[in-house]
Specification:
Layout (H helix, E strand, L loop, with lengths): L9 H4 E3 L8 H18 L9 E4 L1 H9 L3 H10 L7 H13 L5 H18 L5 E8 L15 E6 L1 H14 L3 H9 L9 E7 L7 E6 L10 E8 L3 H4 L6 E6 H8 L4
Antiparallel strand pairs: 1-2, 2-5, 3-4, 3-5, 6-7, 7-8
């Protein structure tokens, strides 16, 4: 698990959502690339997507190259094939990552980007969500989405940097390690991008998940929404039984005066 990074610049470490598209999965992972795609396509139509930025896969590999971290992690993972217990290996890997500071250049880049986000929004210490976005999410033959951590309501640059390191560590949860082993995916092949996105005060109203077709039948002419009061995390984690809404798409076209 050895990676070398030479000549890495700030632009290689941080990308703003508005500069991303669906073509950037290898750079910032599936989740962050999709956010960039949403901003590029929906913002001109008046749909607001919370602002933010992402660290890159190159930044993650730069971190692994620091202080022999990648080598130590790789050696620990190799012991799985020698019969080591998954729980012991996963815990040791996560502890090593959490004990290893980010390289100074990456640490500084995240802090500067967070301060710029605060300036863009005109507020000090903006509340953000710090989200994990793996470069191997939603592949045709396997789905790695939802295996890494998200941290909500993070405030201040120290907390953002700390949450980012915890996102990196979450790439090696027992579940994520086991799934990659089962799928025969080489661990170094998967990189992690950290998304830092403005929090929306959905705790004062409601939030949820919208699907552009019926998830049970695949019927494409409806929009399916699952929502509940409070943060959307309660819906996606299954902590609440959400309300469900189905919207028939042709009615929307009819209301806007267009034909189907």
């Amino acid at each position: 698990m050895r990676h070398t990074m030479t000549g890495t610049t700030e632009d290689d470490r941080i990308r703003w959502f508005e500069d991303l598209s669906a073509q950037d999965v290898a750079v910032v992972g599936g989740k962050n690339a999709s956010l960039g795609e949403m901003i590029g396509n929906l913002a001109p139509r008046g749909i607001r997507v919370p602002a933010g930025f992402a660290t890159t896969a190159d930044a993650y590999r730069e971190y692994l190259a620091a202080d022999g971290l990648g080598t130590a992690v790789g050696e620990r993972l190799d012991t799985l094939r020698d019969g080591a217990e998954l729980a012991d290996v996963g815990r040791a890997v996560r502890e090593r990552i959490l004990d290893t500071p980010l390289p100074a250049a990456l640490d500084g880049a995240i802090r500067r980007a967070y301060r710029e986000l605060c300036e863009r929004l005109g507020r000090a210490d903006v509340d953000v969500a710090v989200r994990s976005s793996a470069t191997a999410e939603d592949l045709p033959e396997a789905s790695f989405a939802g295996q890494q951590e998200t941290f909500l309501g993070v405030t201040g640059e120290d907390a953002v940097v700390d949450a980012g390191r915890r996102c990196y560590a979450s790439l090696f949860t027992d579940r994520a390690i086991s799934y990659r082993e089962h799928q025969h995916v080489d661990h170094p092949w998967v990189a992690l991008s950290v998304g830092v996105q403005q929090m929306v005060r959905s705790d004062r109203a409601g939030a949820g998940v919208m699907f552009t077709l019926d998830t049970d039948s695949g019927f494409p002419r409806v929009v399916l929404v699952n929502a509940a009061f409070g943060l959307g995390e309660s819906v996606v984690s299954g902590a609440v039984d959400p309300d469900e809404y189905e919207v028939f798409k042709p009615f929307l076209h009819k209301r806007s005066g267009t034909s189907t």
